[in-house]
Design a protein that fits this description.
By secondary structure, the chain is α+β, with helices and mostly antiparallel strands. The chain has 2 domains: 120 residues, Nucleoside Triphosphate Pyrophosphohydrolase; 141 residues, Alpha-Beta Complex (Nucleoside Triphosphate Pyrophosphohydrolase). Helices cover 22% and strands 27% of the residues. The protein has 7 helices and 16 strands. The strands form 4 sheets. Strands 11, 12, 13, 14, 15 and 16 form a 6-stranded mixed β-sheet that branches. β9 and β10 form a beta hairpin. α6 packs across α7. The two termini are 18 Å apart.
């Protein structure tokens, strides 16, 4: 049986695009990593998670200029399409090799929409890994100091041998619609006026994604939803989430109840209203519309667009 108002994502979310070979088999091959370092590329990410952008691509320098061998604080991101290894390191930024090339300093939120697939995956992965290392210097088992391991994809306690791996917290994000021409958008209490998006929340222990959708919607806006349907997912390395997208059916006649204090207001919007808001741009636009929507880097934007323009 087809869910009323069912739709699919029109495009792969920006941060879910694949343009890099992760090359998991190389993470424990120290000889291969050393051999590849001479020709490897290096992505520098500063303390504010900013990178250097030139011509819509992230600027990559030569790893050999940073050190003679793989640095203990560098993380291996994978292999480029041409086979070269690429690493990332927390470091001050350096300009492109071409002194005449124009460049700018941006973070992933600002530059995600202009990146090609390779740059998008490189920066998303590097941001997630480096943020994890910054906060995981001690063992989750007993608090012992740890060191980077597996080319940055783990941390190990040198005494016990216990390994910790990069943590990623799953969260659901859901567009609630009536099966026809209306959808719910909500504004968090910490957001400025007119900025609306989808209902989202972290998955609790022992909970499925679908159960989480039902619980979060009920807690945040008081609606009972059904026909919870998966759409797609996207990493969100701010600092370490995985956003799992859904749509679900709700009843426009049911009253909103804001019981957990996270949502300031919610409303049902028609497709025409949402399309007009999409045409105005995103949260950063100068529009005076009643409704402003998330930027293109967020899976929320892709879900909203896919519903608004569904056939």
């Amino acid at each position: 049986m087809t869910t009323p108002g069912a739709f699919h994502l029109r495009n792969v979310p920006l941060l879910s695009r694949v343009g890099l070979l992760r090359a998991d088999e190389l993470r424990t091959d120290e000889a291969a990593l050393r051999d590849g370092w001479a020709d490897a590329l290096l992505l520098r990410v500063d303390r504010r998670n900013q990178v250097l952008i030139s011509g819509g691509q992230v600027v990559l320098g030569k790893a050999s200029k940073f050190s003679d061998a793989p640095d203990e604080h560098a993380v291996f991101l994978g292999r480029m399409p041409d086979g070269r290894h690429v690493w990332a390191v927390r470091s001050a930024l350096e300009g492109p090799e071409d002194p005449h090339a124009e460049s700018e300093v941006l973070n992933l939120r600002q530059a995600g929409a202009i990146f090609d697939d390779v740059s998008s995956q490189l920066v998303a992965t590097a941001t997630a890994l480096l943020n994890w290392h910054d906060s995981a210097r001690f063992s989750s088992l007993d608090g012992s100091p740890t060191r980077a391991h597996r080319a940055g994809w783990a941390r190990i306690d040198p005494v016990s041998g216990h390994e910790d791996f990069p943590r990623q917290d799953p969260a659901v994000i859901c567009l609630i619609h009536d099966g026809h021409d209306r959808a719910v958008l909500a504004r968090q209490t910490v957001w400025p006026e007119r900025l609306f998006s989808l209902i989202a929340g972290f998955v609790e222990a022992g909970e499925s994604f679908e159960s989480c959708v039902v619980r979060e919607v009920a807690e945040e806006i008081g609606l009972d939803v059904h026909d919870v349907t998966y759409l797609g997912s996207q990493p969100w390395p701010f600092p370490r989430s995985l956003m799992v997208g859904f749509h679900a059916i709700g009843d426009p006649e049911q009253e909103f109840v804001f019981s957990d204090g996270e949502i300031a207001e919610a409303a049902w919007f028609t497709r025409d209203e949402v399309r007009a808001a999409l045409a105005d741009g995103d949260w950063s636009s100068e529009s005076t519309s009643r409704l402003l929507l998330p930027g293109s880097i967020s899976i929320a934007r892709e879900i909203i667009e896919s519903w608004a323009y569904a056939e």
